[in-house]
Design brief:
Largest interface: A-B, 65 and 91 residues
Largest sheet of chain A: none
Strand content of chain A: under 5%
Oligomer: heterodimer
Order of helices and strands of chain B: HHHHHHHHHHHH
Structural class of chain A: mainly alpha
Shape of chain A: extended
Order of helices and strands of chain A: HHHHHH
Largest sheet of chain B: none
Strand content of chain B: under 5%
Number of strands of chain A: 0
Helix content of chain A: over 70%
Distance between the termini of chain B: 37 Å
C-alpha cells in the first residue's frame, strides 16, 4: 500500500514537472500570460522563505526576538550588496549561529 | 559560442553554492524517514520516485501519523504543483527539443535549478543550447540529493539539531531572489506572496505553497494593467 502511494505520488510529481514543458504549446499562452510569468520566481520563493523564518516547528508565529529574523536580515543585506549566493547563505547562517551560541548563552 | 559541455558545466557551478542547504536537508529527510519507522529501501524510493524534499517529508509524516494514502498523495500533489509554474517559464527555452528529450529533462526540474537556469538564460538570450544549462543544474542537484538522503538513511541524523540547519532552506531561496529586490515591481510581488503565505499557512494540504504564488501572480497581472 505504501509502495503504491509512493508510485502514485511520483507520477503526480513527474506530471507537475512535465506537463507545461512537454504537453503545452507555447502558442497557447497569450502575451499577457508570458509577461506575468516573468514574476514566477518573485511569486513562488517568498512563500517558502516567509514561513521558514516567521513560523516555528509547531506552526505558530515566532517572537520578534527570534534569531532567524536577524539572520535573515543580515543575509538580505549581504546578498543585496554582494550578489553572491554563497555569501548570502553563509552570512545568514553565521549570524544566526553567533546569536544562538554566543548571545543567547 | 559556448560548447554544450561548457554550458552544462556552467549549470553545475551555478547550483554548487546551494549544496549548503540541499545536503543537510537531504540528510535530514533520509534520517526522518528511518526515524518514523519506514523501511530504508522505501525511504530511498521516495528520493528516486518523488524527488522533492519537502513533499517527501510531508508524505512520510502523514502516512506514519495514520493519514490515508489519498491525503498523503494529495499533499504531495499540492506541494509540487509549483513545478507547473517552473515548467511554464522553462518551456520557452525547451521549445525546440524533441518530445522524448522534453520528457527526460522534466524529471530534473527542481527549485534551485529552475531559478539559476532562468536567471542565466535570461541574461544570455542567444544561447543555442540552453537546455544543457538546465540539465547541468538538475543532474547536479539530483546526484547530491540521492547521496545525501542515502547518508541520512544509513547514518541517521548526524547533524546536531542545535545547529538549526533547517534555517538554510529559507536562506537558499532568499539568495535566489535577493538580486530582484532592485526592481520595485518584483518587490511588490514578493511582498504579496510572502504575506499571503503567512495568512494561508494553516490552509489544508500545505496549499499555501501554491495558493500564495497564485495570489501574487494575480497581483502581478493587475499591477501590469495599471502600469500601462
Amino acid at each position: 500500500m505504501t509502495w503504491l502511494s509512493i508510485i502514485i505520488s511520483g507520477i503526480v510529481t513527474y506530471f507537475s514537472r512535465m506537463a507545461m514543458v512537454a504537453l503545452i504549446d507555447r502558442e497557447m499562452l497569450g502575451t499577457k500570460v508570458k509577461e506575468v510569468l516573468n514574476y514566477v520566481p518573485a511569486a513562488v520563493f517568498p512563500a517558502i522563505i516567509f514561513p521558514g523564518i516567521f513560523f516555528n516547528d509547531f506552526g505558530s508565529f515566532v517572537e520578534i526576538t527570534d534569531p532567524k529574523i536577524y539572520g535573515a536580515i543580515v543575509a538580505l543585506v549581504v546578498g543585496f550588496y554582494s550578489r553572491s549566493v554563497i555569501a548570502t547563505i553563509v552570512s545568514g547562517l553565521l549570524s544566526y549561529w553567533f546569536i544562538i551560541f554566543f548571545l543567547l548563552r | 559560442m559556448l560548447s554544450k559541455s561548457k554550458i552544462f558545466f556552467k549549470g553545475i557551478v551555478a547550483v554548487l553554492p546551494h549544496m549548503l542547504s540541499v545536503i543537510p536537508f537531504g540528510i535530514i529527510t533520509g534520517a526522518i524517514g528511518v526515524e518514523l519507522g519506514f523501511d530504508p529501501i522505501l525511504v530511498y524510493a521516495t528520493s528516486l520516485i518523488i524527488f522533492g524534499g519537502a513533499s517527501q517529508i510531508i508524505f512520510m509524516q502523514l502516512l506514519s501519523g495514520g493519514a490515508s494514502s489519498l491525503v498523503a498523495i494529495t499533499s504531495v500533489g499540492v506541494i509540487n504543483s509549483r513545478h507547473l509554474l517552473y515548467g511554464a517559464v522553462l518551456s520557452e527555452y525547451l521549445e525546440k527539443l524533441s518530445f522524448i528529450k522534453k520528457l527526460f529533462i522534466s524529471y530534473f526540474i527542481v527549485d534551485q535549478g529552475f531559478a539559476e537556469s532562468n536567471k542565466y538564460i535570461k541574461q544570455n538570450k542567444n544561447l543555442s543550447n540552453p537546455h544543457y544549462y538546465v540539465l547541468g543544474t538538475g543532474i547536479t542537484l539530483w546526484f547530491c540529493w540521492q547521496l545525501s538522503t542515502i547518508s541520512g538513511i544509513i547514518l541517521g541524523s548526524f547533524i546536531p539539531d542545535e545547529l538549526g540547519l533547517k534555517f538554510a532552506i529559507p536562506l537558499t531561496f532568499l539568495a535566489i531572489i535577493v538580486n530582484d529586490l532592485r526592481k520595485l515591481d518584483h518587490v511588490f510581488v514578493m511582498l504579496v506572496s510572502g504575506f499571503a503565505s503567512l495568512i494561508l499557512f494553516n490552509a489544508p494540504f500545505k496549499s499555501y505553497i501554491i495558493l500564495s504564488p497564485i495570489v501574487a501572480l494575480i497581483a502581478a497581472f493587475i499591477m501590469l494593467r495599471f502600469k500601462k
